Amino acid sequence: MTDDGGWTISQLATEFDVSTRSIRFYEEKGLICPERTPGGYRLYNKRDRARLKLILRGKRFGMTLDEIQDILGLGSVDMDEAEQIRKAITYGQRIMADVQQRMDELKIMHQDLMDIGDKLQARLDELDGRAANEA
């Protein structure tokens, strides 16, 4: 945090392990709106920091920037907190369903690989048994 009670772009980039270019991109998209110092430097307040954290969390969960913008209520001036929460829940449920589907597919793949491994091991044991009998 700076002496002004905010964060510089470099401080946020370091804290959240993202590039300064990414943070500028989110600013260009209107997702965060830092103030400017008299020298023209960006100064991010607590709200900007919280939004950046939500943006990065949303991206990690597979949300698009449009979805994140929707949750933050940036597309609608009239969106209240309850509507933001409803949208976040809806997107969260969709992501959880996608994750569950991927997990189900991975379980099937895991079982298929286990079955193939068992068959290959049985075949190898059979071949090793023949080799031992022939020797």
CATH topology of the domain at 1-62: Multidrug-efflux Transporter Regulator, Chain: A, Domain 2
**CA-based gyration radius:** 26 Å
Helices and strands, in N-to-C order?
HHEEHHH
Q: For the report, how would you describe the main beta sheet?
A: 2 strands, antiparallel
Shape: elongated
Describe the protein's topology.
Blueprint lengths: L8 H8 L3 H9 L6 E2 L5 E2 L2 H15 L4 H7 L9 H54 L1
Antiparallel strand pairs: 1-2
Write a structural description.
The protein has 135 residues and is mostly helical. The protein has a domain at 1-62: Multidrug-efflux Transporter Regulator, Chain: A, Domain 2 (Orthogonal Bundle). The protein has 5 helices and 2 strands, in the order ααββααα. The protein has helices at residues 9-16, 20-28, 46-60, 65-71, 81-134; strands at residues 35-36, 42-43. Strands 1-2 form a two-stranded antiparallel ribbon. β1 and β2 form a beta hairpin. The longest helix is centred in the last third of the chain and has 54 residues, at 81-134. The protein is elongated. The termini are far apart. The model has no long low-confidence stretch (mean pLDDT 89). One of its GO terms (molecular function) is DNA-binding transcription factor activity. InterPro entries: DNA-bd_dom_put_sf, MerR-type_HTH_dom, MerR_fam. Residues 6-74 form the HTH merR-type domain.
